[in-house]
Amino acid sequence: MYALRQNPVNFTAPKNQSPLIDPAVIRAAGQIYYTHCEVHPEIAGQPSGVAINRVNHRGKVIFTNQPVLLPQECFVPLSQIESHIY
């Protein structure tokens, strides 16, 4: 049996598929998001997700579509936070 070598130029990553995120990070992002909603009910606008540090699980609610992240941070979209609850 032989394996064909795939040229990286022809390979395209699926754009709809989000990278896998640790469930503990998703839970921490959910806590950050729901705490933000309880403390700041007056803030208008739909957040896009939470930028969270993978090591210490500190994060911020983000309102832009393409956040700028530090190397140890990841972005957890709001859709993934809400779907993780159910």
In short:
The chain is an alpha+beta fold and 86 residues long. The protein has 2 helices and 3 strands.
Task: Describe the model.
- This protein has 86 residues and is α+β, with helices and mostly antiparallel strands.
- 29% of the residues lie in helices and 16% in strands.
- The protein has two helices and three strands, in the order αβββα.
- It has a three-stranded antiparallel sheet with strand order 2-1-3.
- The chain is globular and about 30 Å long.
- The model has no long low-confidence stretch (mean pLDDT 83).
- Which bin fits the share of residues in helices? 25-40%
The overall strand count is 3
Query: How many domains is the backbone divided into?
Result: 1
**Gross geometry:** globular
Strand content: 15-25%
Number of helices: 2
Whole-angstrom Rg: 17 Å
Output the helix-strand order. HEEEH
Judged by helices, strands and strand pairing, the structural class is alpha+beta
Can you list the strand order of the major beta sheet? 2-1-3
Instruction: State mean pLDDT (0 to 100 scale).
Output: 83
Q: What is the assembly state of the chains in this entry?
A: single chain
Low-confidence stretches: none
Largest sheet: 3 strands, antiparallel
| Separation of the first and last Cα atoms | 44 Å
Give short descriptive properties of this protein.
single chain, 86 residues, alpha+beta, three-stranded antiparallel beta sheet, 2 helices, 3 strands, 29% helix
SSE blueprint:
Elements: H1 23-39, E1 49-53, E2 59-62, E3 73-77, H2 78-85
Antiparallel strand pairs: 1-2, 1-3
Helix pairs in contact: 1-2
